[in-house]
């Protein structure tokens, strides 16, 4: 049994919010059809040019050309209804005996859903090399989620490689997953976060040397350029992380708590945080993540087996309700986070798969990665995004989208609107 298979979720933290709970846990690690883009956009799969492969460093990564299967976005036209975006994302993405990474890659291909996989860097670091990791404010080789073994690294790299080639995004969930008031990432400085990011990149860029798997194919991307966003462990330490990320050239963060409204930028990064969504039959909402549904339903990760199906259905129905109120309301992107875990009998994995099957096939819906969503937002006029932000949760424009999104008349300058000067009398 691999070290990855034996690892279990550790150190999860929950934060009271409204009447629900917010949190994130460590991941217990255990392989398309074309669809038109947003109105005015088109899909343009890009193959690597002949001879474009260029190994980087020890050959763990490589430049292979532009990423395939990426949408090309354009500005919305006046009067145009916004597309409905949905982002499915995975914390600590890795492949183990559960084979959930490879399974959800298959689900993504089936429903043309591009996703974001947040890799924990030490999933590419073997346990015997653990001292190479020097976590901020912790002893070298410390980790709340353990390390990997050779076969776990081989399997994870295989899935990362294929996921990127299929058009998905590889982000970061950092490394040691330290949570809590005493020793968690919430205590980290801006410089601590920079160190953690640098090390996460290093483990990706040197996995061949560190694991001895020198005969394996490289990851087909330059991680220094690929890495543009993250989710912090347990959603802690966001304030200093965002400051660090803005200095490192990141484009978005998804570590906070939002309502279902259109996003805005903070320190130059798009705030694409998790959102509060309904829990059917309950009088409060919770964060759009499997962990938070589990905590609210069973108080632990392995509750009463007789309730597993009900809990999974409740999560699925809550996410679908959240989708419907955006889809028929303000069209704000829906942000969903998950873990490759079999909590409560795997019921949340079923719930996510059924949600994907329900929402990603609907008209004007685009299941995209965070990077793709950031690309679309950056392609729009900032004034248009600001206007979309005036719509509340589930609020459709009273006069319809055509009127709400109509071009605004240009405001005349004071000089242009002033009466012409009267000729001087001779």
Automatic annotation (TrEMBL):
Record-linked Gene3D superfamilies: Glycoside hydrolase/deacetylase (3.20.20.370)
Taxonomic lineage from the root: Bacteria, Bacillati, Actinomycetota, Actinomycetes, Kitasatosporales
Keyword Ribosomal protein in annotation: no
SUPFAM superfamilies, A to Z: Glycoside hydrolase/deacetylase
GO biological process terms on file: carbohydrate metabolic process
Signal peptide (residue range): 1-28
Designated name of the protein: Secreted protein
Keywords, ordered alphabetically: Signal
């Amino acid at each position: 049994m691999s070290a990855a298979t034996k690892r279990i979720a550790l150190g999860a933290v929950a934060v009271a919010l409204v009447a629900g709970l917010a949190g994130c846990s460590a991941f217990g690690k255990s392989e398309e059809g074309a669809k038109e883009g947003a109105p005015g956009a088109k899909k343009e799969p890009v193959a690597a040019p002949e001879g474009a492969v260029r190994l980087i460093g020890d050959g763990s990564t490589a430049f292979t050309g532009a990423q395939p299967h990426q949408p090309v976005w354009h500005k919305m036209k006046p009067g145009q209804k916004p597309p409905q975006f949905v982002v499915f994302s995975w914390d600590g993405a890795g492949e183990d005996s559960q084979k959930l990474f490879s399974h959800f890659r298959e689900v993504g291909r089936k429903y043309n859903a591009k996703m974001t996989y947040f890799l924990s860097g030490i999933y590419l670091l073997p346990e015997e090399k653990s001292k190479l990791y020097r976590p901020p404010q912790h002893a070298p080789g410390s980790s709340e989620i353990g390390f990997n073994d050779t076969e776990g690294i081989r399997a994870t790299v295989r899935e990362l490689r294929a996921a990127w080639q299929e058009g998905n995004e590889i982000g970061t969930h950092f490394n040691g997953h330290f949570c809590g008031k005493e020793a968690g990432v919430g205590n980290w400085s801006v410089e601590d976060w920079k160190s953690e990011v640098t090390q996460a990149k290093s483990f990706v860029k040197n996995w061949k040397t560190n694991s001895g798997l020198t005969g394996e194919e490289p990851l087909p991307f330059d991680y220094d350029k690929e890495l543009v966003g993250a989710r912090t462990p347990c959603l802690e330490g966001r304030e200093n992380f965002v400051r660090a990320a803005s200095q490192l050239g990141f484009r978005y963060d998804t570590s906070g708590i939002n309502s279902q409204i259109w996003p805005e930028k903070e320190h130059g990064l798009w705030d694409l945080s998790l959102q509060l969504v309904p829990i059917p039959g309950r009088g409060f909402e919770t964060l759009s993540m499997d962990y938070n549904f589990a905590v609210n339903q069973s108080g632990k990760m392995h509750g009463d087996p007789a309730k597993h199906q009900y809990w999974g259905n409740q999560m699925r129905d809550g996410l679908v309700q959240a989708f419907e109120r955006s889809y028929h309301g303000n069209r704000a992107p829906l942000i969903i986070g998950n873990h490759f875990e079999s909590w409560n009998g795997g019921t949340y994995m079923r719930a996510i798969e059924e949600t994907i099957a329900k929402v990603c096939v609907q008209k004007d819906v685009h299941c995209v990665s965070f990077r793709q969503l950031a690309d679309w937002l950056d392609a729009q006029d900032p004034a248009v995004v600001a206007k979309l932000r005036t719509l509340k949760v589930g609020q459709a424009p009273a006069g319809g989208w055509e009127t709400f999104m109509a071009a605004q008349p240009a405001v005349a300058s004071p000089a242009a609107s002033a009466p012409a000067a009267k000729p001087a009398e001779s």
